[in-house]
Specification:
The protein is mainly alpha-helical. Helix content is about 65%, strand content about 0%. It is built from five helices and no strands. Helix 3 packs antiparallel against helix 4 and helix 3 runs parallel beside helix 5. The longest helix has 20 residues. The model has no long low-confidence stretch (mean pLDDT about 90).
Length: about 100
């Protein structure tokens, strides 16, 4: 089995990561659960948002799902303080995009 397929299967096995998310994660360089943990929620979301925001509407729940995958918990169980912070991450990403900022990948 190829490393890419193994990575896809491992990502799919994580909580909150579904079949639509995996190809997006792979396209932005997240090829394994370890990559997701190492890059963290903020960097992973930044990559996804700036790559796909014209094609997809990213919600706060998507951020919570990434965080839940990293924490190995349901996205609804992400701590409230962390949810408040992630809300600011989404707001900042939207403002940067609206102002024409390009990501530093």
């Amino acid at each position: 089995m190829s490393a890419k397929i193994q990575g896809m299967q491992a990502l799919l096995a994580m909580r909150n990561i579904g079949p639509k998310s995996v190809p997006q994660l792979l396209e932005v360089g997240i090829t394994s659960p370890d990559d997701l943990r190492n890059y963290g929620t903020e960097e992973t979301f930044r990559r996804l948002y700036f790559r796909f925001c014209d094609e997809h509407k990213f919600s706060l729940n998507y951020l919570y799902a990434l965080e839940g995958a990293i924490l190995d918990c349901d996205w609804r169980q992400v701590p409230d303080e962390r949810k408040k912070y992630l809300k600011l991450v989404l707001k900042a990403s939207r403002e940067k995009r609206d102002n024409g900022a390009e990501p530093a990948v």
